[in-house]
């Protein structure tokens, strides 16, 4: 039934464990097409894990990365060691430090060591060798690839995986692909990546947000269907990207676009993204923000991790605040680095009342320093789509001298204007900014009008390093050229779908409805969202912002929720902001072994999160009507039993 329904609205069904969309090189989502599949994934079901050939890159170490890591272990490791790879010594050293400190906290002190790894051309045929940097004599070859390897006991893999997952600092799949392409033929092709047994679990310093991380161990390597040449052909032929030599220009184009100073996208014939006639004052609500205030990262979580590291470096020692129920790893970053944080998980005005009490109490304890060092919040939040009262939070930050970091991923700067209320704005470019689900990226923007700007900027000038792989930047630049057009289409369809579902819900007063509620900025804390929603301006040509492409639905019974999900004719898997509609049982994937705790904050176990794509609005509505009928039928059948 599911395959038939899916095909009816033009979506080709994708088998469990394969990339979505199909045949996508470097895909960042994976097909988990039924509710049972998602539960099986979290529970460590062999049927599901054995089918997985890809996954979200922070949770699933890609096949190419694992193969390269195993080669490094064979070259430099000793028996019983595993490896993780990073683009710079600084990030590798941060991983080593985390392994040492975190393993000690968990009662199993582990060692870790670093090696700088150079993949160096050996001859004119461009074959290569792996060498320690001390043994290299490549004389600045343009083909030289510099990696940094962390070697550690295999039994400490679960701790190392925490760093990989929370920080998002590991190398990208494209970098691994480039490294492997430089190596000589004849290397072992059936390498396995040492991992702990699936029974090993993490011990968190906070009993909550304890996603069942043991099952995030990657399955055995399975041969990929596409060879490297075919993969590159697909990306270059259908991606129509800039040549690799244009990486610097691509990164500048990205920074200009994110800073809001690029008034319109460069013509498609332009190969540099660098035409001064297209520039003007920033549209981000802060006129003097420039490309130099924008920093690029390998992913959104890496931008958040770096924002937190920056704050720890420039602020006095103190806790942060996590305001609202965030994406899980944001809270983990605040808990596991530094002295911890206060968690105000509802993100409502009542939580601001509680925040005021915390600030007053901490000030009494030590008036010589800020009561907290920073507040992190999403606008709106994922998955509850709640928007915080930014004006009130900003007033408290100014009064008590702490920083505000806003994650604008869900709202995005085409729809909402949040930079004036933040010291830093972070975003996952992986999501709607890219849309194509084939490249990771993140950004951090400093507010030049912020009280702490000079300290933040000075630190970044001295310490920031570019870890965003050139090829990833090139694909991201190409994907994001039509951002505004895509956002308008997605916003329009999402509002139509949400209006339909809301009209058939209990919250709208419909008797006997199987839908309990629809979480969407139009209905959820609307006064706070509307206050930051971009207003149309005829003079500048700015269009009114929409409500975004993400919403969540809750149901009156588990059977209704599961039936709706299984019947919904779209791709199913992790991630959001894709050009195609993508659904997942969010709480199952993010909070499988703490469902009761998550429910205390309104994140119900059977919540379905849906990211709307570029498909025809009427086609999408037809699919949601079909899924709703399945949910209603499931409830009716249960009533008869």
UniProtKB/TrEMBL annotation:
It catalyses: O-succinyl-L-homoserine + L-cysteine = L,L-cystathionine + succinate + H(+). Its cofactor is pyridoxal 5'-phosphate. One of its GO terms (molecular function) is cystathionine gamma-synthase activity. SUPFAM superfamilies: PLP-dependent transferases. It holds the Pfam family Cys_Met_Meta_PP. One of its GO terms (biological process) is transsulfuration. Pathway: Amino-acid biosynthesis; L-methionine biosynthesis via de novo pathway; L-cystathionine from O-succinyl-L-homoserine: step 1/1. Keywords: Pyridoxal phosphate, Transferase. Residues 265-285 are annotated as: Disordered. Gene3D superfamilies: Aspartate Aminotransferase, domain 1, Type I PLP-dependent aspartate aminotransferase-like (Major domain). Residues 269-280 have a biased composition (Polar residues). Its EC number is 2.5.1.48. It comes from the Eukaryota. The keyword Transferase applies. It is an enzyme of class 2 (transferase). InterPro entries: Cys/Met-Metab_PyrdxlP-dep_enz, PyrdxlP-dep_Trfase, PyrdxlP-dep_Trfase_major, PyrdxlP-dep_Trfase_small, Trans-sulfuration_enzymes. Catalyzes the formation of L-cystathionine from O-succinyl-L-homoserine (OSHS) and L-cysteine, via a gamma-replacement reaction. In the absence of thiol, catalyzes gamma-elimination to form 2-oxobutanoate, succinate and ammonia. This is cystathionine gamma-synthase. The lineage of its organism: Eukaryota, Fungi, Dikarya, Basidiomycota, Agaricomycotina.
């Amino acid at each position: 039934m599911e395959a038939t329904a899916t095909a009816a609205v033009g979506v080709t069904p994708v088998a469990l464990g394969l990339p979505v969309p199909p045949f996508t090189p470097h895909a960042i989502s994976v097909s988990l097409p039924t509710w049972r599949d998602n539960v099986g994934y979290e529970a460590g079901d062999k049927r599901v894990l054995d089918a997985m050939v890809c996954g979200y890159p922070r949770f699933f170490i890609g096949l190419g990365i694992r193969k390269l890591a195993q080669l490094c272990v064979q070259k430099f490791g000793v028996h019983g060691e595993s490896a993780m790879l990073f683009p710079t010594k600084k990030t590798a050293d941060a991983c080593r430090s985390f392994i040492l400190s975190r393993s000690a906290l968990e009662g199993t002190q582990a060692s870790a060591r670093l090696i700088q790894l150079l993949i160096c051309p050996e001859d004119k045929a461009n074959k290569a060798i792996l060498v320690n940097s001390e043994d290299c004599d490549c004389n600045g070859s343009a083909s030289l690839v510099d990696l940094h390897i962390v070697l550690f006991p295999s039994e400490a893999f679960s701790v190392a995986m925490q760093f990989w997952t929370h920080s998002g600092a590991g190398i990208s799949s494209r970098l691994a692909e480039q490294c492997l392409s430089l190596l000589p033929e004849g290397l072992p092709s059936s390498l396995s990546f040492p991992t702990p047994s699936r029974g090993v679990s993490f011990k968190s310093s906070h009993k909550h947000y304890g996603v069942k991380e043991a099952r995030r161990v990657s399955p055995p390597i399975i041969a990929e269907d596409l060879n490297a040449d075919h993969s590159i052909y697909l990306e270059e032929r259908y991606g129509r990207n800039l040549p690799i030599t244009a990486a610097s220009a691509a990164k500048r184009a990205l920074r200009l676009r994110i800073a809001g100073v690029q008034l319109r996208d460069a013509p498609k014939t332009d190969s540099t993204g660098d035409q001064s006639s297209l520039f003007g004052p920033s549209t981000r609500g802060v006129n003097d923000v420039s490309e130099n205030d924008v920093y690029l990262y390998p992913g959104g979580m890496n931008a958040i991790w770096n924002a937190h590291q920056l704050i720890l470096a420039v602020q006095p020692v103190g806790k942060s605040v996590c305001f609202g129920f965030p994406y899980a790893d944001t809270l983990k970053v605040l808990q596991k680095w530094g002295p911890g944080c206060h968690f105000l998980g509802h993100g409502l005005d009542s939580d601001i009342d509680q925040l005021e009490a915390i600030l007053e109490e901490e000030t009494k304890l030590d008036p010589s320093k800020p009561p907290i060092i920073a507040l992190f919040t999403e606008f709106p939040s994922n998955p509850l789509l709640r928007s915080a009262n930014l004006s009130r939070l900003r007033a408290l930050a100014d009064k008590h001298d702490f920083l505000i970091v806003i994650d604008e991923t869900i709202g995005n700067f085409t729809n909402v204007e949040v930079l004036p209320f933040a010291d830093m704005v972070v975003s996952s470019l992986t999501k709607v900014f890219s849309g194509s689900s084939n490249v990771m990226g993140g950004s951090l923007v400093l507010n030049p009008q912020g009280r702490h700007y000079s300290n933040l900027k000075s630190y970044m000038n001295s310490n920031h390093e570019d870890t965003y792989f050139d090829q990833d930047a090139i694909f991201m630049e190409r994907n994001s050229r039509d951002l505004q057009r895509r956002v308008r289409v997605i916003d329009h369809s999402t509002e139509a779908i949400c209006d339909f579902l809301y009209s058939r819900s209990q919250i709208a007063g419909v008797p006997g409805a199987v839908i309990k509620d629809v979480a969407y900025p139009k209905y959820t804390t609307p006064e706070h969202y509307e206050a930051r929603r971009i207003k149309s301006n005829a003079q500048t040509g700015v269009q009114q912002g929409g409500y975004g492409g993400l919403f969540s639905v809750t149901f009156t019974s588990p059977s209704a929720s599961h039936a709706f999900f299984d019947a919904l004719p779209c791709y199913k898997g992790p991630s959001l902001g894709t050009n195609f509609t993508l659904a997942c049982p969010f709480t199952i994937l993010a909070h499988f072994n703490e469902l009761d705790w998550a429910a205390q904050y309104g994140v119900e176990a059977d919540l379905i999160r849906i990211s709307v794509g570029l498909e025809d609005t009427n086609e999408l509505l037809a699919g949601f009507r079909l899924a709703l009928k399945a949910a209603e039928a499931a409830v009716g059948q249960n009533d008869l039993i």
